[in-house]
Amino acid sequence: DAMIGQISPCLSEGDIMIDGGNSHFKDTERREEELKEKGILYVGSGVSGGEEGARYGPCLMPGGENSAYNQLETIFKKVAAVAEDGTVCVTFIGEKGAGHFVKTTHNGIEYAIMQSISEVYNVLKNALKMSPSEIRSVMAEWEDEKLGGYLMEITVDGLGITDPDTGNPLIDLILDKAGQKGTGKWTSQSAADLGEPVPTIDSALSARFMSAKKEDRVKASEIVHGPSETYGGDKDIVIKSLRDALYGSMIVSYAQGLALLRAASIEYDYKLNIKEIANIWKGGCIIRSKLLFPIVEAFEREPDLTNLLFDPEFSKIIGDWGLQTNWRLAVKTALDLGIPVPALQASLTYIDSYRSAFLPANMIQLQRDIFGAHGFKRVDKEGDFHIPK
After folding, report:
1. Is 88 found in the same domain as 144?
2. Exposure of 49 by Cβ count < 10 A (0-12 exposed, 13-18 middle, 19+ buried)?
3. CATH of the domain at 372
4. Residue positions annotated with a catalytic role
5. Which residue, of 124, 174, 330, 355, is most buried by count of CB atoms within 10 Å of its CB?
6. Res. 130: pLDDT tops 90
7. Looking at the 3D structure of the chain, how many domains does it have?
8. Please, what is the end-to-end C-alpha distance for the chain in angstroms?
9. Percentage of the residues of the chain whose pLDDT score is greater than 90
10. What does the mean pLDDT of the chain come to?
């Protein structure tokens, strides 16, 4: 806001201002309205790609006035990354704060996938006692298959970095306290405002909060006892189960984020084209992956898809008994050993909740009516009811 205050007096009616930072979509909408009074067009553009994106082309998610985007489209397309299938990774997202909302949600998905990968790494490291080089070899195989994507690429590369001072793997020397810039929190808050469940993203956010409590965790490790972290069974079975658990959790991470975009599009009248959003995410951005190609195909089959899990191809993948058995084994193994896997577990629970025709919310409604007279619906008749007095 201070920067806008400095720049806006130098601008004339019809000029365009672009905000390419991580701004909250509500702030973007407020700024757009304020500048509109002066005849200045404001474009809130999500930008993803990090340092590599700055050099070789990012994924751009511009929102605001369509007329402003039309004037900038040629420039944006020259700047944007190009995916392996030739897709230029920019499209007009929607009016108002749509661009920044989509970028925030992108970051929420990013949080979820990063946490899922880190949990798999943790089980391989602490349960199977694998070295960074051994973990790297396993994940490199996965990266070459269906789990391929930027976050897996940098994970594999990072596991191979040696600290020049000690000669030890760098990963073993990095303090286990994760930072954040706030976009993951915004995603969870926005989802709560819209009543859209995103438990994998929520768990990833909470995991970062927990990591920050390093001193408390060290103290608790000495006085709060639990099971041994070491696994004594067949390592190959656990490795295979972790691969499937990670694959499932990645799919669910995208499913939750895209469902949130759909909810926001309806509530805020953004008119988001989710297929096009997934399409531009195929290159330049942090969450680019092989999974985005079938995700685009899913929204080509059904543009109004409520949830990725309703797509016949993805429901087949998630419903595959072999994958689910391995996923459950991975989570159970970790829990039996006392190793936290909040994202892998939250993703699995999301699947189980979503496919449950019945959830025990009737008990919650009964309790709410007993202590607060909130009322409840019945399954056998219309209307609002209370417990008999």
Report:
1. no
2. buried
3. 1.20.5.320
4. 103, 110
5. 330
6. yes
7. 3
8. 57
9. 91
10. 96
Q: Which domain holds residue 6?
A: 2-99
Q: Say if residue 291 is in the same domain as residue 148.
A: yes
Query: Are 158 and 225 part of one and the same domain?
Result: yes
Block residue for tokens 């700047």: 79
Tokens of 362: 């009737």
Q: Are residues 325 and 379 in the same domain?
A: no
What is the distance between the alpha carbons of residues 206 and 56, in angstroms, rounded to a whole number? 33
pLDDT band for 178, please (50, 70, 90 cuts). Answer: very high
When pLDDT is cut at 50, 70 and 90, the band that residue 35 belongs to is very high
- Same domain assignment for residues 87 and 132: no
Express each pLDDT in 278-311 by its tens digit: 999 999 999 999 999 999 999 999 999 999 999 9
Question: Mean pLDDT throughout 177-191?
Answer: 93
Residue 157 sits in the same domain as residue 275: yes
CATH classification at residue 111: 1.10.1040.10
Last residue of a domain, one of 80, 99, 118: 99
User: Same domain, yes or no, for 327 and 368?
Assistant: no
Residue with token string 């979509």: 25
Instruction: Report the pLDDT value the prediction gives residue 316, as an integer from 0 to 100.
Output: 97
Q: What is the rounded CA–CA span in Å between residue 126 and residue 118? A: 12
Q: What confidence tens digit (pLDDT) does each residue in 212-232 have?
A: 999 999 999 999 999 987 898
Torsion of CA 19, 24, 28, 31, to 10 degrees: -100
Token pair, residue 94, equals 């929607």
